[in-house]
């Protein structure tokens, strides 16, 4: 299982939200580039970057920072937030991104996902952020009305190979991942599922191994020191 340290960017800073609420935000650093270098130095094999401003505004906002992150580390970087057009995807790849995560647009325009996958293959990932089992959109501000598992199955039928599954109710709480939801998703689709939300300690990460997920995104727990990245990577290797 792979561990993906998370860098969420808001107004140029490294932040973490609690349960997806922009009103409940903690700033953990002024320099996302230095943070990425730190995670790589501790053994990160892949870095997860979210443009939170982009998610809210529906367009890329922090591309300069994302480009500098890609230039500063040799580890591959995946990113999401505000990706709504083919031009947005191409702009991210031009920054040096290895994998682009599409969220809101996957709900509103499945044909767009089909086109993107046909062009870019497994460099396209789908981000499904769920609340009570239903996919949320627009920076987690609104429910789509679609069951998360059904949406994932639809995306995989179009050729999507990676699903990033976030449980909003646990995200940022450090109280543990929604193991049942993650296991259900991993067993329901023939694709790599990356779990996100709720990791607060090393035991939480270990508990996800049996859920069958390909990886886990760790955010707040790294910044608070509740999880030591180097130790965690060794534990699941």
List the helices and strands and how they pair.
Blueprint lengths: L1 E9 L2 E6 L2 E9 L2 H10 L5 E5 H6 L5 H10 L4 E4 L5 H9 L4 E4 L1 H5 L1 H11 L3 E8 L2 E4 L4 E6 H10 L4 E6 L11 H10 L3 E5 L5 H8 L5 E4 L1 H5 L4 H8 L1
Parallel strand pairs: 1-4, 1-12, 4-5, 5-6, 6-7, 7-10, 10-11, 11-12
Antiparallel strand pairs: 1-2, 2-3, 7-8, 8-9
Helix pairs in contact: 1-3, 9-11
Give a short account of the largest sheet. 8 strands, parallel, barrel
- Kindly report the average pLDDT value: 93
Superfamily (CATH H level) name:
Aldolase class I
Computed structural class = alpha/beta
Second-tier CATH architecture: Alpha-Beta Barrel
CATH class wording? Alpha Beta
Tally the helices: 11
Strand order of the largest sheet: 1-4-5-6-7-10-11-12
User: In total, how many domains does the architecture comprise?
Assistant: 1
Strands, total number: 12
Residue share in helix: 25-40%
Cα-atom Rg, whole angstroms? 16 Å
Task: Give the H and E element order.
Answer: EEEHEHHEHEHHEEEHEHEHEHH
Q: Briefly note the CATH topology name.
A: TIM Barrel
Distance between the termini: 7 Å
Please report which band the strand proportion falls in: under 5%, 5-15%, 15-25%, 25-35%, 35-45% or over 45%: 25-35%
- Give unreliable regions as ranges: none
Which shape, going by the Cα principal axes?
A: globular
